[in-house]
Structure to design on (636 residues):
C-alpha cells in the first residue's frame, strides 16, 4: 500500500448522520470533520452522546437503521467510502485496512465460537489463508498481545477468559490483517483500573512498533494526554476544538475544552469537591441554535447564536468559538 | 459425560414407569374390555372364560406385577382386536408416523428458519408484517379443519392429490403439510424474535466490523446463538407430532401410523394395544429429550451436561 503520502490516511469531511427515531430525528453527527495521518494517534474526547462513536462507526460502515449518513464524505487514502464505488471499497477495507476495537469485551466476542475460529475467520476471509496458515498466524497474534499458551487459548471460548484477556483477543483480531488504521472505541471503559493500564500500555506499544494509525475514543483526558498526538474535542455532534494534544492541554481555547480539563480530577492539587460543567448536554433532536455549548457557557453572547465553523488558529489548531477567535479568551 | 447419560437414563426410566402405571390404572378403570369384545348375547360363562384368558379375574396387584414383568421383555400380550402381539403392530405402524413427522417438521424448518431470519432483518418491514400475519393465521387454524380444507381443495376440487392412505409418495404431501403448518407458524415467530435479539448484540457489530460477509454474520454468527431456543421448540414439536398431532392428522387422512392405530384401539377398548402404544410414545419422548440435550451442548459450549 504505497498510496501518496500527501493525502491523509483518513479524512472525514462534514459528516452528517441522523437517526430517525419515534421521538424525532436525532442529529448525532452535525458536520464532523477530522483527519488522521499515517502513524498518528488521534484522540476523540467528549461526553456521552456527543457523537464520537457515531462518527467512527460511520467510517466502519456500521451505521444501520434507523441511522443514515446524510451528508459529507469519508475518504480513506483519498478514496471515498461513501460513493457508489465506495460501497464495494468499504467491504474490502473493513476489518482489513481499518479495524475496530469495541468498548465491552464481555459482549463483543461471539459466545458460541472459539477464540481460534473468531480470529482465523478474519484471516481466511481477507487474506485467503488456509486453515493451517491462519491458525499459525493467530498464534503469533496472541503472542503479540501477550497471551500465554496461545495454542491452548485458541481452543477456548470467550466465557473461559477474563475481561482483560478478551480485550487482548479483540486487539489481536484487530491486528490480524496488518491494518493501517485501528479505531478503538473506549477500549478500556469496561475494564478495571489495573487492566486499563495494561491494555493502554499494550496499545501504545503496538502503535509504536507497528507504526499503525489509531483513533482513540475516550472520555478519559489522561489517556489522551498520554497516548495521542492530536486530540479532537466533540460536543453535541460537532468538533469544537482540534489540535496537537500537548498544545490543547496546555492552553485550551474553547470554553468547553477548558471546562473538561478543569473537571479532570488531579492528584497534585487538593480540592474540596469535584469541578463540573454546569448544565446538561443538549438534546440532539432539537440542538440549540448556533454554538450548542452557549447555553452552558459563561462567556456566551449574542454572536454565539450564529454558528461558528471550525476556524484555524495557528499551528494546526482549529476552534469553533467566537470568543476565542476574536482573541477574547477570558 | 458418562454420568450425564446414566442420570438421564434413570430419569427416563422413572418417567416411563410413571406413564405405564397411569395407563395400567386408567385402562382398567374406564370401560370393560370384556363387554366390548364379546357379543351382547354371550353368556356369563363365556364372559368369565374371557376374563380368565386376559387375566382380569386375578387381584389387581398380581395383574400389575405380571404386567411390569412382561413390559421388560416388551411383551404386552396379544391385541384383542387384531389377535397378534401388540408390539408387532406398534413396530409396523411407528415408522409411518416417524416418516410423517420427519417430512412435516422438516418442511416446517426449511420454510420457517429462512422466513424468520428474513423477517428479523427488517423488523416492521413489509416481509416482517406479512410473516407475522401469516404466522398468526397459521396459529389460529385448527389442525383437523386445515386437513379437511386441504382435502376439499386439492383432492375434491383440483383432483391433484389423493385423499387418504399411504400408497404413493404423493399421499404424504397433504398430511405432512397439515402436520407441519402449525409448527411452521410457531417456529417462524420464534426464529424471528430470537434473531431480532441476536442481531442487536454487540458481537454482530464486531463481526460486521471484521468485514465478514453478511451471510456469514447472520447465518452463522447470529443463527447459532439463536439456535438454542429454536432447537428447544423443534424438539418439542417433534414430540407433540409423534405423540399428539399424529392422532388428528392420521385420522383425517387415514394415514396408517401409530396415531390412527391409537384411535382405533381406543374405539375397540383394546387395552393391550393402548398400553403398548402409550408406552412407546413415552419412550419416544424420553429418547428425544436426551437427544435434544446433546444438541444443546453442540450448539452452545457454555452449557454443562449434568
Amino acid at each position: 500500500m504505497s498510496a501518496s503520502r500527501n493525502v491523509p490516511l483518513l479524512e472525514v469531511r462534514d459528516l452528517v448522520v441522523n437517526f430517525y427515531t419515534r421521538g424525532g430525528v436525532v442529529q448525532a453527527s452535525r458536520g464532523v470533520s477530522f483527519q488522521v495521518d499515517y502513524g498518528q494517534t488521534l484522540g476523540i474526547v467528549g461526553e456521552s452522546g456527543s457523537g464520537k462513536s457515531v462518527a467512527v462507526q460511520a467510517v466502519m460502515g456500521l451505521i444501520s437503521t434507523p441511522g443514515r449518513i446524510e451528508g459529507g464524505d469519508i475518504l480513506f487514502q483519498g478514496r471515498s467510502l461513501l460513493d457508489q464505488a465506495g460501497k464495494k471499497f468499504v467491504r474490502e477495507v473493513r476489518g482489513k485496512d481499518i479495524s475496530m476495537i469495541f468498548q465491552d469485551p464481555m459482549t463483543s466476542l461471539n459466545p458460541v465460537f472459539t477464540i481460534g475460529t473468531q480470529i482465523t475467520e478474519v484471516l481466511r476471509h481477507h487474506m485467503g489463508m488456509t486453515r493451517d496458515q491462519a491458525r499459525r498466524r493467530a498464534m503469533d497474534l496472541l503472542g503479540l498481545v501477550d497471551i500465554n499458551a496461545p495454542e491452548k487459548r485458541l481452543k477456548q471460548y470467550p466465557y473461559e477468559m477474563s475481561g482483560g484477556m478478551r480485550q487482548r483477543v479483540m486487539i489481536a483480531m484487530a491486528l490480524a490483517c496488518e491494518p493501517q488504521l485501528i479505531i478503538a472505541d473506549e477500549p478500556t471503559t469496561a475494564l478495571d483500573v489495573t487492566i486499563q493500564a495494561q491494555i493502554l500500555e499494550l496499545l501504545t506499544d503496538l502503535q509504536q512498533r507497528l507504526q499503525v494509525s489509531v483513533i482513540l475514543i475516550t472520555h478519559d483526558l489522561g489517556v489522551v494526554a498520554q497516548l495521542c498526538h492530536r486530540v479532537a474535542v466533540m460536543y453535541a455532534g460537532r468538533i469544537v476544538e482540534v489540535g496537537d494534544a500537548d498544545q490543547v492541554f496546555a492552553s485550551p481555547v474553547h470554553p468547553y475544552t477548558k471546562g473538561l480539563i478543569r473537571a479532570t480530577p488531579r492528584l497534585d492539587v487538593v480540592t474540596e469537591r469535584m469541578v463540573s460543567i454546569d448544565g446538561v448536554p443538549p438534546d440532539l433532536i432539537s440542538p440549540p441554535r448556533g454554538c450548542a455549548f452557549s447555553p452552558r457557557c459563561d462567556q456566551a453572547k449574542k454572536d454565539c447564536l450564529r454558528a461558528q465553523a471550525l476556524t484555524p488558529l495557528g499551528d494546526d489548531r482549529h476552534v469553533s468559538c467566537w470568543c476565542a477567535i476574536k482573541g477574547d479568551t477570558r | 459425560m458418562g454420568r450425564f447419560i446414566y442420570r438421564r437414563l434413570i430419569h427416563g426410566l422413572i418417567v416411563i414407569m410413571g406413564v405405564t402405571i397411569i395407563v395400567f390404572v386408567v385402562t382398567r378403570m374406564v370401560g370393560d374390555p370384556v363387554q366390548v369384545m364379546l357379543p351382547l348375547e354371550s353368556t356369563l360363562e363365556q364372559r368369565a372364560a374371557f376374563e380368565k384368558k386376559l387375566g382380569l379375574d386375578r387381584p389387581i396387584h398380581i395383574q400389575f406385577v405380571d404386567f411390569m414383568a412382561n413390559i421388560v421383555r416388551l411383551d404386552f400380550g396379544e391385541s384383542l382386536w387384531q389377535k397378534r402381539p401388540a408390539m408387532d403392530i406398534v413396530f409396523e405402524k411407528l415408522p409411518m408416523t416417524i416418516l410423517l413427522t420427519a417430512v412435516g417438521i422438516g418442511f416446517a424448518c426449511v420454510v420457517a428458519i429462512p422466513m424468520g431470519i428474513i423477517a428479523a432483518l427488517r423488523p416492521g418491514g413489509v416481509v416482517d408484517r406479512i410473516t407475522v400475519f401469516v404466522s398468526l393465521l397459521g396459529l389460529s387454524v385448527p389442525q383437523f379443519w386445515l386437513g379437511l380444507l386441504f382435502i376439499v381443495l386439492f383432492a375434491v376440487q383440483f383432483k391433484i392429490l389423493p385423499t387418504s392412505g399411504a400408497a404413493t409418495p404423493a399421499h404424504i404431501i397433504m398430511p405432512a403439510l397439515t402436520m407441519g403448518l402449525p409448527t411452521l407458524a410457531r417456529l417462524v415467530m420464534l426464529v424471528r424474535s430470537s434473531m431480532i435479539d441476536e442481531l442487536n448484540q454487540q458481537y454482530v457489530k464486531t463481526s460486521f466490523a471484521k468485514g465478514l460477509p453478511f451471510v456469514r454474520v447472520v447465518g452463522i454468527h447470529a443463527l447459532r446463538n439463536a439456535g438454542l431456543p429454536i432447537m428447544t421448540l423443534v424438539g418439542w414439536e417433534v414430540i407433540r407430532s409423534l405423540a399428539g398431532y399424529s392422532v388428528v392428522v392420521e385420522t383425517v387422512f387415514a394415514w396408517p401410523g401409530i396415531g390412527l392405530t391409537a384411535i382405533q384401539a381406543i374405539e375397540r377398548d383394546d387395552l393391550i394395544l393402548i398400553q403398548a402404544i402409550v408406552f412407546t410414545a413415552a419412550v419416544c419422548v424420553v429418547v428425544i429429550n436426551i437427544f435434544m440435550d446433546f444438541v444443546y451442548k453442540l450448539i452452545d459450549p457454555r452449557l454443562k451436561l449434568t
